[in-house]
Every structure is written in C-alpha cells, then in structure tokens.
C-alpha cells in the first residue's frame, strides 16, 4: 500500500465505512439507544489482508472472519508485518461455522466465536482454547456466542431454542470458554423486523438464566436497522463496506 495520498480502494473503503457508521448512528438514535453499546464488526472474509490494513488505517478495530485457514493466514500476516495492529487493540471474531479439526487454530486468533451451535463444536473449542492457553498463544478465555435458529430449521444452522439451555450449560462448564451471549442470522423469507423481534424475545428469556451473557450479535448489511431496533450489541457488516464478495478466494 502506498504511503501518502490514499489509493482508490482506501478511498472507497473510507466512504463505505463512514456510510455504514452513519446508518448505525441513525439506527441507534431512532431506537433511543447508546451507540457505544453497539459494536460494528467489519466482515472481511474473501478480501485480502491489504483491505484489513486499509481499514485499520481508517480506525477500524473489530473484524469478522468466517473461514479457516483463510483467516489464520490473513491474521498472521497482519500481525507479522504490522506489530501495531496487536497493540492497537485490533480483534478478530470467528463468525462462520467451525469444523472440529480447525477449532485449535481458531482458538489461536479469535476473540470470540459467534457461530457455536452444537456440543461437538463446544467441546472442540474448549480443547482448542485450553491448549492455546497452555501454550500462551492466548491470554484469556475464548468468547462464545451461541447461534440460535430463528425459524427452527436445523439445516440452516443454529441451535433450536429448546436445546439452548443445555448448550449454554456445556459452555459454562468449560473453563477455557466464556459465554458471552447469542448470535442470530435472520432467515431471508419474511421481514427482518419479525425475525429480530423473535431474537429479542429469545434473548430476554436467555438473560434470565445468564444475566452476564448479554451480547446479541445480530444484523448484517441488509438488516442492521431492524437488529439495532431489537437490541443488537454487535452488527456484522460485510458487503455494505467491502463491496460484493469475489467469487473465488484471493
Ligand atoms: C458474511 C457474513 C456476514 C456479512 O454479511 P453481509 O450481508 O455481506 O453484510 C454476516 N454474518 C455472517 C455469519 C456472515 O457469514
């Protein structure tokens, strides 16, 4: 990346990032919520490390990645050639589904995993986080958000609401994991408003049992307003900032 005058891609990212921030500000305002209580995770999957560097230069500190080993490679590269990124509090969350055999590598770089929806994944992440802690590759527990199915279709990912309490207990029992809250993806059919209202409901009940796990990761490029209306504490925005995803990985 050239120093001095920003390259065209940096300008484009700067414009889209500030447009996304403005949307988020307006949504928080409209909902009467404190903007400080809503994190904007910029989803950089499929985009190269250079884009992450450009965003860091724009002040972005929170990123979402969804694929291994793409994420590991990208993040290792960023930390290696830019030591500032670690000191500056840059964090990466895993928002995609985790295969058991990739759990250890995810536990090396992720602040939290948003997509935990099965016992097997909890157990694999618990082992991965444990071993990353032992090796001092990480210094604190791995955050866990349980992905809940909003439409009850098990094929689309997410734990069924009725199975949520047991899965939450399993996370609680793992000392290397820290239960932080819930994550949802609104199904494409029907208005996002309706799904986000349902997410808010599920979360209210969840909070009664887990008052310290209040995060709600909800909202993407197309539905962040509805998510903020219904209490999202973290929106995951890809396309609106990065542009359309390339069909083939870089
Ligand atoms: C890709 C992805 C996003 C970002 O979606 P956009 O519509 O591009 O904003 C958010 N959440 C998850 C789980 C994703 O995989």
Per-chain topology:
Elements: H1 8-30, E1 39-43, H2 49-57, E2 62-65, H3 70-81, H4 84-87, E3 91-94, H5 103-109, E4 110-116, H6 119-134, E5 142-147, H7 164-172, E6 177-183, H8 192-209, E7 215-217, H9 224-229, E8 234-237, H10 239-242
Parallel strand pairs: 1-2, 1-8, 2-3, 3-4, 4-5, 5-6, 6-7
The protein binds pyridoxal-5'-phosphate.
Q: What is the CATH-assigned architecture?
A: Alpha-Beta Barrel
Q: Could you tell me the strand content as a percent range? A: 15-25%
CATH topology group: TIM Barrel
What separation lies between the terminal Cα atoms?
17 Å
Helical coverage, percent range = 40-55%
CATH class: Alpha Beta
Alpha-beta content class: alpha/beta
Bound compounds, please? pyridoxal-5'-phosphate
Sequence stretches where pLDDT stays below 50 over 5 or more residues: none
| SS element count, helices | 10
What is the assembly state of the chains in this entry?
single chain
Overall geometry comes to globular
């Amino acid at each position: 990346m050239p120093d001095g005058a920003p390259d065209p891609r940096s300008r484009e990212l700067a414009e889209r990032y500030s447009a996304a921030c403005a949307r988020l500000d307006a949504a928080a305002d409209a909902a009467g919520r404190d903007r400080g209580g809503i994190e904007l995770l910029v989803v950089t999957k499929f985009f190269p490390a250079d884009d992450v560097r450009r965003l860091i230069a724009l002040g972005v500190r929170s990123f979402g990645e969804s694929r291994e080993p793409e994420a590991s490679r990208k993040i290792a590269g960023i930390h290696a050639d830019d030591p500032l990124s670690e000191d500056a509090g840059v964090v990466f969350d895993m928002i995609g589904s985790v295969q058991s055999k990739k759990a250890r590598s995810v536990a090396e770089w992720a602040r939290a995993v948003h997509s935990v929806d099965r016992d097997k994944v909890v157990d694999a992440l618990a082992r991965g986080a444990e071993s990353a802690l032992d090796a001092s590759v990480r210094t604190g527990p791995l955050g866990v958000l349980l992905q809940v199915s909003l439409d009850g279709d098990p094929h689309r990912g997410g734990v069924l609401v009725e199975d949520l309490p047991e899965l939450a207990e399993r996370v609680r029992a793992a000392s290397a994991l820290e239960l932080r809250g819930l994550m949802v993806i609104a199904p494409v059919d029907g208005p996002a408003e309706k799904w986000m209202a349902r997410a808010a409901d599920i979360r209210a009940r969840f909070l009664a049992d887990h008052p310290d796990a209040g995060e709600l990761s909800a909202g993407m490029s197309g539905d962040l307003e509805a998510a903020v209306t219904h209490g999202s504490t973290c929106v995951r925005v890809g396309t609106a900032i990065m542009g359309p995803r390339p069909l083939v990985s870089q």
